[in-house]
Amino acid sequence: MPTSTNPATGEQIATYDEHTAAQVTDFVEQAHAQHRSWRRTSFDERAAVLRATADALDARADDLAGLMAAEMGKPLAAGRSEVEKCAWACRYYADHGAEHLADIPLDADRQRSYIHHDPLGVVLAVMPWNFPLWQVFRFAAPAIMAGNAGLLKHASNVTGCALAIEDLFREGGAPEGLFRTLVIPSRHVEAVLEHPLVRAATLTGSVPAGSAVAETAGRLLKKTVLELGGSDPYVVLADADIEAAAKTCATSRLINSGQSCIAAKRFIVVDEVHDAFVDAFVAEMAAAVMGDPTDEDSTIGPQAQESLRDELHDQVRRTVDAGAELVLGGEVPDRDGAWYPATVLTGVTTDMAAGAEETFGPVAAVLRARDEAHAIELANDTSFGLGAAVFTADLERGERIAAEELAAGCCFVNDFVASDPRLPFGGIKDSGYGRELSHLGIREFVNQKTVVVGPKQ
Fold it and tell me: pTM for this structure?
């Protein structure tokens, strides 16, 4: 039975009844039936639903932020920002979906030839707890605008958020069953994906979870998009504005209390400015306020679960045992809840836990590089490839490194990596494949159909 527990206090919030196998089958069949009608609606009709859903998000922003704070510990200000971003995504695809899915003419010596975009059908989404609304809406808004139906299997600790999302689409006027939350355990995902009416899947989560879904989908020849973990490197070069870089790096590392795939995790600093950066960076990290997520002054809430906090602390201890220096934090507070402070490790190498694994919490690993070439080598010495950033006063140099040297799906110059409905988002290597958001995201779950009218007269 799924249970929501407040990670700030350890108190149980709510329990939920799981859907039975028969209910899930009914939901799949209903979603498919709704898709068959929905795909025949106009883009204007679909856009109206997304805009109304965005309005519902705006109206319920405080309640939704409070729900996220209670279920996974997100500070209220961050929760309201997340709701606002979800509404932005809905309005973005309402405004641009028709343009992104317009026929693309091709010159093929025929009377007419073009690419036409048809929706695939029912898309299963397996989503994590760290951004309980945004992870879902960045899949659902484009998928629904494209004419698909959606089934959501959310993380069990944010079941309240999952059901709220279903309500939001219903309030926005989506046909009953077009978007449905499945309250099921992870072990039942394979059976849902095996249903012949489920045509595709998208997953945001761990590498093992992504591999499992990809294996099942591959056997069934079903399309998948995977956004998995990350160990994002931020390269700081000798000519960087150190104070600005330190502030930006700390902001990125502490996004969502450090629980973000695209949060900066490894800070690779050339030797010439290493010590100055560490001093400035530690000061920024130390200034973060760890506290009750319902307190407006808190910037770091609890970790989502005590077990995840304990895994994070184990990574810190193993890194220190391997020779790194703990210069900030690194101790579990003596209080109820899943708390962990802002932590900085220096002297980290790529074979240490914090230099090789994804640290999903407010833990920063600083690596020293000899020069630019060595910094890029260290940045790319990872199995992940989601985001990366470089800091330099020479924008042309930074752009060259971002475009040609860093091995990641999203590379930024003098700024932290962030998702944006207008920009493609996704990774390479163990960080997954496929793209979300922008025109690329809405085209992932459509048949890019070649239509030819001919021969040429």
Answer: 0.97
